[in-house]
C-alpha cells in the first residue's frame, strides 16, 4: 500500500478535526446523535451463491435468526483482514464520520436530474451515517480498525429481506447513476467519482463500489477514497467500508468479505466460526 507524505498525514488530521466540528453540528440536528471524526466505509449484480458452512460446535442462532450475541460473534477480528490493522474500541468506531462526505449534490450534473441526484445524495448521506443498507430491523453489531491514516468499519445486522435486497440493487446501479458529480458544502465544491469493483462470490447476493471524494481541506486539496462492499445472507447482511487519504484498501475489504461472510453463515447455522487463518501461521 502506498503511503503519503507526512504533510498529507497532517492534512488528514485537519480533515478529522473539521469532521468533528461539522459532525457535532449535525448532532444537534439529528436528535442528539453524537458524531466523531472520520468515518470510513459496485459492479453490476453478481450471480447469487449459497456457501456451505464448515462443521463446528453449536453456538449462535440454530434457527437462522440473528441474535445480538450472534451478531457480535459474527464480527471479524484484525486477524481476518490483510495488512496491519488494529482494532479500536466500539464506541470510537460508532463515532467515525468524515466531513468530506458532507454536501449537497449538484442536480445540474445529471441528465435524469431528480432521480440520479437523489440516488447520489442517498449514497453520500449513508456513507456519512454508516447506514448504507438502511436501518437494521433486528440485531446489529459493528467493529472498527485503523491502519496508519486509514480506517475500516465492519458491520453485521439483520434486515427485512426485501429492504436489504432493494439496497443491493440500488448499489448495483451507482457506478452508472453516479459516475461523476459535484457537491457543495459551505461554498466549497467537491468532486465525487463512483466506480464498480469486484467482490468475492459469497453469500446470497453482494455488491461493491469505490467512492473517491476530492476537495479542499483547510486550503489543501485532498482525496478521500473508500472501498465499500455489502453481502446478503438470508435476511442478514455484512457491510465493509475502508479507506482514507492513503487510498486503496481493496485487498483488506476482500478478505473481510470472504471470511466475514463465512463467520456469519456459521453463526446462523448454530456453529462456531472457524479460527482466523493467521492463527495457524
Q: What's the mean pLDDT score?
A: 79
Q: What percentage of residues falls in helices of 4 or more residues? A: 25-40%
Q: Give the strand tally.
A: 9
Radius of gyration, in angstroms, nearest whole number:
18 Å
Main sheet record? 9 strands, antiparallel
Tell me the distance between the termini.
22 Å
Number of helices: 6
How much strand content do the residues show?
Answer: 25-35%
- Which residues form runs of ≥5 with pLDDT under 50? 1-62
Shape: globular
Spatial order of the strands forming the largest sheet: 1-3-4-9-8-7-6-5-2
How are helices and strands ordered from N to C? HHEHEHEEHEEEEEH
Main structural class:
alpha+beta
TL;DR of this structure?
This protein is an alpha+beta fold and 281 residues long.
Structure notes:
There is one protein chain. The protein contains six helices and nine strands. By secondary structure, it is an alpha+beta fold. The protein starts with 5 loop residues before the first helix and ends in a 13-residue tail after the last helix. The relative contact order is 0.22.
Task: Compile the SSE list and pairings.
Layout: H1 6-29, H2 68-74, E1 86-87, H3 90-94, E2 104-105, H4 113-129, E3 140-147, E4 150-158, H5 161-177, E5 180-185, E6 188-196, E7 205-217, E8 220-233, E9 236-244, H6 250-268
Antiparallel strand pairs: 1-3, 2-5, 3-4, 4-9, 5-6, 6-7, 7-8, 8-9
Amino acid at each position: 500500500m502506498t503511503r503519503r507524505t507526512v504533510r498529507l498525514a497532517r492534512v488528514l488530521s485537519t480533515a478529522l478535526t473539521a469532521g468533528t466540528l461539522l459532525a457535532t453540528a449535525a448532532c444537534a440536528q439529528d436528535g442528539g446523535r453524537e458524531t466523531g471524526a472520520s468515518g470510513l466505509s459496485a459492479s453490476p449484480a453478481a450471480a447469487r451463491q449459497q456457501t456451505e458452512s464448515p462443521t463446528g460446535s453449536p453456538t449462535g442462532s440454530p434457527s437462522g435468526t440473528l441474535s445480538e450475541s450472534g451478531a457480535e460473534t459474527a464480527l471479524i477480528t484484525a486477524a481476518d483482514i490483510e495488512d496491519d490493522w488494529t482494532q479500536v474500541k466500539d464506541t470510537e468506531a460508532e463515532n467515525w464520520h468524515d466531513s468530506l462526505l458532507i454536501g449537497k449534490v449538484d442536480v445540474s450534473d445529471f441528465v435524469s436530474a431528480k432521480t440520479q441526484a437523489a440516488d447520489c445524495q442517498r449514497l453520500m448521506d449513508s456513507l456519512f451515517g454508516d447506514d448504507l443498507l438502511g436501518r437494521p430491523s433486528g440485531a446489529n453489531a459493528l467493529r472498527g480498525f485503523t491502519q496508519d491514516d486509514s480506517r475500516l468499519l465492519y458491520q453485521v445486522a439483520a434486515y427485512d429481506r426485501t429492504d436489504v435486497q432493494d439496497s443491493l440493487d440500488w448499489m448495483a446501479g451507482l457506478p452508472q447513476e453516479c459516475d461523476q458529480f459535484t457537491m457543495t458544502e459551505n461554498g466549497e465544491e467537491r468532486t465525487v467519482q463512483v466506480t464498480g469493483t469486484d467482490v468475492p462470490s459469497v453469500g446470497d447476493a453482494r455488491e461493491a463500489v469505490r467512492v473517491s471524494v476530492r476537495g479542499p481541506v483547510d486550503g489543501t486539496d485532498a482525496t478521500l477514497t473508500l472501498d465499500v462492499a455489502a453481502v446478503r445472507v438470508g435476511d442478514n447482511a455484512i457491510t465493509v467500508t475502508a479507506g482514507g487519504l492513503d487510498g486503496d484498501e481493496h485487498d483488506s475489504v476482500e478478505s473481510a468479505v470472504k471470511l466475514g461472510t463465512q463467520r456469519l453463515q456459521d453463526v446462523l447455522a448454530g456453529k462456531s466460526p472457524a479460527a482466523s487463518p493467521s492463527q495457524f501461521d
